[in-house]
Amino acid sequence: MIRLNFTLFIQMGIFLVLMLVLNRFVFRPMAALLEERDKRIKDPGADARGMESEIEKMRLKYEATLNDAKLKAIEERNRLRKEGTDREQEIIKSAYKASEETLSEIKGRIEKEVAIARETLRKEAVSLSSNMAEKLLGRSA
Q: Which residues, including other chains, have CB under 8 Å from residue 39's CB and lie 6 or more apart?
């Protein structure tokens, strides 16, 4: 026969504490696992679709970064080409100027040498014509 005394209340208290502990550490985690399993069974492609959308986002981000890098490379190449062309023009101009100066200097020297040669030839022509006249006439002039 069942007797109602204070041990019944102790047993009910132990039972309630045990239920709270088991609920917290066993029943709730088990229910969550079962619910997760049901989700996976019902919709197996959900994870794949989620991964596909994430991969697509990453691909688009990669392409955008790649396009930005290409644009920067093209801009840099164009800038370097322009700098190279400008530098080339400067070098050509300075070389042309130096060649003009050298050419005018050489022309000046040639003109001086021609003038000296003409003067020398005039003197020699006078001397030579005198010698020829002496030889032809047979007397000194």
A: 46
SS3 of the chain: helix, strand, coil, percent, to 5: 90, 0, 10
Per-residue confidence (pLDDT) for residue 51, from 0 to 100: 82
12 token code pair: 């009910």
Residue 111: how many CB atoms within 10 A of its CB? 10
Q: What is the DSSP letter of 27?
A: I
Look up residue 17 and give its two tokens: 């504490």
What b-and-e string marks burial along 119-134, b requiring 16 or more CB atoms within 10 Å of the CB?
eeeeeeeeeeeeeeee
Residue 67 is given by DSSP the state H
- Please give the full DSSP string across 19-75, using - where no structure is assigned: HHHHIIIIIHHHHHHHHHHHHHHH-THHHHHHHHHHHHHHHHHHHHHHHHHHHHHHH
Q: Which residue has 């309630």 as its token pair?
A: 16
Who's near 130: CB < 8 A, 6+ residues apart? 141
Question: pLDDT under 70 in the chain at which residues?
Answer: 1-2, 44-47, 140-141
Distance, in Å, from the CA atom of 62 to the CA atom of 56, rounded to the nearest integer, reads 10
